[in-house]
Amino acid sequence: MIKVGIIGGSGYTAGELLRLLVHHPNVTLDFVYSTTNAGVSIYKQHTDLIGETNLKFTNTINPEVDVLFLCLGHGRSRSFLETNTFSKDTKVIDLGNDFRLNADHKFLDRDFVYGLPELQKEKIKTANNIANPGCFATAIQLGLLPLTAENKLKNPVHINATTGSTGAGVMPGGTTHFSWRDNNFSSYKVFTHQHLGEIEQSLKQVQNDFEAPLFFIPNRGNFSKGIYATMYTKYDGDVEEAKALYKKFYADAEFTVVSDEEIHLKQVVNTNKCILHISKKNGMLLITSVIDNLIKGASGQAIHNMNLMFGYKGKTGLELKASAF
């Protein structure tokens, strides 16, 4: 059994981790760390977990756990690891953005591997520390990587992606308040979103001469979970050729599939799937990608990485199904 610790246990990603890990056949939850909720039953914060676990939040850690999930929010993982020492045998999976870029992979005595299984499955299997990808970055990379694998991503890429309100985290803010978000739609960080760095890094890893600009418009949707992303770029081949190369690239992928039918968000919400659809018109290849931002874009992908690191089948504890309604 894998002994698991979670740091930052009160947020949305930690909630999803807990919902999945309490039913994982190879996991024992050792502690869930939260300074603001120490001593409080976990189900008081994550109310759907009533009857699922009797564990309480704690403000102490066990430095000997087998794997540590960091759910601290962006920029806070480094300081936590600097001030808290864990066994050299403890594997770390960071769900923040602290270690995603190549320049940041080495920290203290830990080397972090970028944890996109569809790109780095073999590296993940032998890794001791994982930088879990961002949610937008996951949906967009999975939409573009097959083109780079065939050296076919040569032209500017236009990306429009909409995320649910949980993407902003559990702390309330002006753009997450229900009265503002409901019946509303807006863009933010246009062309400057922080996930662009890791997206470009992965595309260049596969296609060394990749230099095409990515014009990314992130949007806030008036729903709670999911990402619906569209990408289009000039493409010389025909659409059947494009579909074939996508299906070839993901032939062995455990969670990413290419659909011949048009896709929608409810197909993936509450699952660890990414579903892609490919079409072409007027010389432009359109790639549509849908994921659950908190599962495939965060906690589910983190557990997939854990499974690979410990030699379990990728789908262990992640055999989830979407609702048809």
Order of helices and strands: EHEHEEHEEEEHEHEHEHEEHEEEH
Structural domain tally: 2
For the secondary structure, the number of strands is 16
Report the biggest beta sheet as strand number plus sense, adding barrel if it closes.
Answer: 7 strands, parallel
Q: In which range does the helix fraction lie?
A: 25-40%
Structural class: alpha/beta
Write down the overall geometry: globular
Rg over C-alpha atoms, rounded to the nearest angstrom: 19 Å
**Assembly annotation:** single chain
The CATH architecture classification of the largest domain is 2-Layer Sandwich
Strand order of the largest sheet: 3-2-1-4-5-9-8
Fourth-tier CATH superfamily name of the largest domain: Dihydrodipicolinate Reductase, domain 2
Task: Look at the structure and give the CATH class of the largest domain.
Answer: Alpha Beta
Amino- and carboxy-terminal Cα gap: 36 Å
CATH topology of the largest domain: Dihydrodipicolinate Reductase, domain 2
Summarize model confidence as the mean pLDDT. Answer: 94
Binned strand content: 15-25%
Question: Could you list some keywords that capture this structure?
Answer:
325 residues; Dihydrodipicolinate Reductase, domain 2; alpha/beta; seven-stranded parallel beta sheet; 9 helices; seven-stranded mixed beta sheet; 2 domains; Rossmann fold; 16 strands
